[in-house]
Design a protein that fits this description.
2 domains; Rossmann fold; globular; alpha+beta; Tumour Suppressor Smad4; 6-stranded antiparallel β-sheet; 10 helices; single chain
Length: 357
């Protein structure tokens, strides 16, 4: 992550702020007053656009470009930011325009991008801070974060469309992907819910490996839970043009920044360095995955005969015939991919706004 010590606007009038807010995000559903307060604080300073579906984003992004918005504020979670950047990448490429400053506004459940960038506070306070900084000409430090660029092709049974995404983390398959399916079954998600999924999967896997005389005493539901979380992915995986020597994966995940999930899971340590993508792939038995869970959780190196854990430039995964890849992009699930390629994406520039009340 690169840090610029100050950002001075080159315009001479008030900054134009474009806010994309997701009414479906957890915080907005629980507190509808947030949106009314946002409308009040934005009065005369820019645009607030509500998008309930990713299909609505293109028109909003085009409008933000046309209005020359100096800041794009994303009031949603990491998934909303993922969609905003993916659509902005496509529109900006078509019209030959770079992105302005991007502000993730802690509107989601985990907000790992805002946490990494040092953005603090909720959207209303963040917008107030941007307006005030512009009014008095205060320079805001700006950080640059790496992204990843994922492209691929859906299986014909899923429409066959091309996939073109910009993001920060991809759970390609195995426990990395199955984890989110379990996590999203909770109404509200926090660090304790993340820990609960990890502990239940670990306990169930250890129980499944218990000696036969002891297995009748193990709750069958716990074993099923572990089987579902630890279900492997089968695919051909190439890293920088070289195929990995195994094709059954207990976990495959990729990140462009080092990530902290709810203060519980820390991963992608190599991506803490500027310009580095980090891939982790783990094969072997389910018990081997459980033995590596402390490394996955703490961000320390994974070990074993069937593993890859390091930086890369080009990643490709290809599903076997009759199977698909079902990755999770920044918390957003996508089903039915035939193939997936990942490279470095464009950097984004984020003003460091500390708007804690």
């Amino acid at each position: 992550m690169q840090v610029e010590r100050g950002y001075a606007a080159t315009y001479t009038s008030e900054a134009v702020i474009g806010v994309i807010t997701n009414p479906n995000s957890g915080k907005n559903r629980r507190d509808p007053d947030r949106l009314r307060a946002l409308d009040r604080v934005m009065d005369g300073h820019g645009l607030v656009r509500r998008t309930r579906d990713p299909s609505e984003l293109r028109a909003v992004i085009e409008e933000f470009f046309e209005r020359d918005c100096d800041y794009w504020v994303c009031d949603g979670g990491d998934g909303t930011l993922h969609w905003m950047l993916s659509v902005a990448h496509q529109v900006g490429r078509e019209i030959g325009r770079p992105w302005p400053l991007i502000v993730p506004a802690n509107g989601g459940t985990i907000d790992f991008v805002a946490s990494k960038a040092g953005v603090r506070g909720q959207v209303v306070d963040i917008v107030k801070a941007l307006v005030e900084a512009d009014r008095v000409g205060r320079r805001l430090p700006v950080v640059e974060l790496d992204t990843l660029h994922a492209t691929g092709q859906l299986d014909p049974a899923h429409g066959g469309a091309k996939v073109d995404r910009i993001g920060f983390a991809v759970a390609v398959g195995g426990v990395a992907q199955n984890f989110f399916d379990k996590l999203y079954q909770y109404d509200r998600i926090d660090g304790w819910k993340i820990l609960d999924v990890i502990l239940r999967a670990t306990a169930g896997s250890v129980a499944s490996a218990a000696p036969l005389p002891l297995r009748p005493y193990v709750a069958p539901g716990l074993q099923r839970y572990a089987d579902e979380v630890l279900k492997p992915m089968r695919a051909r995986v190439d890293v920088d043009g070289q195929p990995l020597h195994f094709d059954t994966f207990s976990a495959v995940q990729i990140g462009s920044i080092d990530i902290n999930l709810g203060g519980i899971v820390r991963t992608f340590r190599h991506a803490a360095r500027d310009g580095v993508l980090h891939a982790q792939a783990l094969g072997g038995s389910a018990l081997g995955v459980v033995m590596n869970l402390p490394n996955v959780v703490l961000g320390t190196p994974i070990w074993g005969e069937y593993q890859f854990d390091g930086p890369f430039q080009h990643f490709r995964a290809t599903a076997f015939a009759g199977e698909t890849l079902d990755p999770v992009f920044d918390g957003e699930m996508l089903f039915g991919l035939r193939e997936l390629e990942i490279r470095r994406g464009p950097k984004i520039r984020i003003p460091v706004v500390n708007a804690m009340p």
